[in-house]
Specification:
Blueprint: H1 29-58, H2 60-82, H3 88-109, H4 122-141, H5 144-147, H6 156-173, H7 176-179, H8 235-240, H9 259-266, H10 275-283, H11 286-293, H12 312-330, H13 335-340, E1 344-347, E2 355-358, E3 374-377, E4 386-394, E5 419-421, E6 424-427, H14 433-438, E7 442-443, E8 449-455
Antiparallel strand pairs: 1-2, 2-3, 3-4, 4-8, 5-6, 5-7
Amino acid sequence: MSDDTPSTAPPSGAPAAPPEAPKAPGASVGDTLRWLVAAACVGAAVIHFAYAPTHIDENGAHGAFFLTVAWAQLAVGFSLARWREVRWPWTAAAALNAAVIAVWLLSRTAGVPGSDAEAVGFPDALATGLEAVAVVAALVALRPALAARPAFRLSPVLGAIVAVALVASVSASVTPSIAGEHGHDDGSGADHDDDHGDHPAEGETAAADGHDHGAAEAVADVDPDDRCDLGFNTAAFNEVSVPGRPHAHDDGEPVDFTLDEWAEVFVDPDDGIPPAVVVDFIEDRPVMRDGILTGGLTHTLDPDPWNPMTDPDECAALADELRRAKEVAARYPTIADAEAAGYRKVTTYYPGIAAHYMNFDHLQDGFVLEEPEMLLYDGDGPEAGVVGLSYYILQEGDEEPTEGFTGDNDHYHRHVGLCFKDGVVAAGSNTSEEECADVGGEKSDGSAGWMSHVWITPGCESDWGVFSGANPALKVRGMDTTGEVPTGCGTGKTMDDDLAFDTSGDGPSV
């Protein structure tokens, strides 16, 4: 070797250069999918956790399902992050979320045990979308050839945007005022906007002012000194009412009380009829018994929830509307007056809900305060007295009508599948086609008919709320149908008397 050839050996005494470190392998499709599925599972779990309390209040089994699904989705997300060399977390993610999607589809089509088919809302649609992402991504990750492929490098900025969008969407879905609902039926309830404008003009509906019905989620209670709505109900109701969504009032599922407990509320021993006698009478009539025990007359023996009102303008508007409603009821003090005005009988007298007389000429008008579709009476004879009004709105679908009184405390309900004979209800929705035919009737759909009560008669004030689905003042009136009933739910009061509403508050009274 020539002395002029430069040497490549390190100088004597210098350390040898370390070998070049191997380059870290790039991220794979499987790595990207792992975090995508984990994030989707956690997002869906948050939504299920948020709506679990509401479902526990409505149906313990449904609430338990929500909690179980939420914890399982969290566990799957954790498993994907913890165990990276095994396949079972991917299989669990796909199977779990596919099963939840199947239950959701069933609940939106045929209905699940304990509830009818429900409408699709933002929260449940978002949760289902996240679950669908988890299923598809997990199935892809289970294909080794696909999972091992190099993944495109994700920009940190784009990743941050996606993460913020996911967090914002999930947060919105569990925030009632943003989601456009109040946690009803898997998060699919109707809107119930609390942004009311000025009081509507005569004959107009409160819907024009932004009144929006729906299943209002429980709101924070407020100090009685801040409320202006105490004068719209009895003192007994104000003492026990709590904020929340309205009770169910339909024939859709079994009630949470016994026939004896029902009789303790709706049978007055002072009338000379022991509750036990009434229970025996009803037990001998299965159609009547089952009609009560499936919620045909009331679904609960508790007062309805009431969301406190603190806006003076809203309270003034509602006070005026209730006064006008009382004036409307006063035009038809007896059944004879109602029939003379074109109303005809559609139900006989039933404890809790009264006798219903309908004017079919008003059906196409929507909510018009001065023209209620139904008048309610405390007996069946021509001199039976008026007890309240019922507004009946025709609207297809499962969304509650958005028309009504100011505030979010009046709500609509349906009775789907009643048995009618000669235009009068002969049996409840619980009856089969055959049972209805046996009494000479025909089943009616009724899914498009929405009713809302207002109990606005002196002596018949409802201690369950002025808009309650059932009224405990409407007792069993005897074992016959003579209709010899004093006005004012047996008190003898007339529409000229004052309503026994609470006068302790600072707001308006009716």
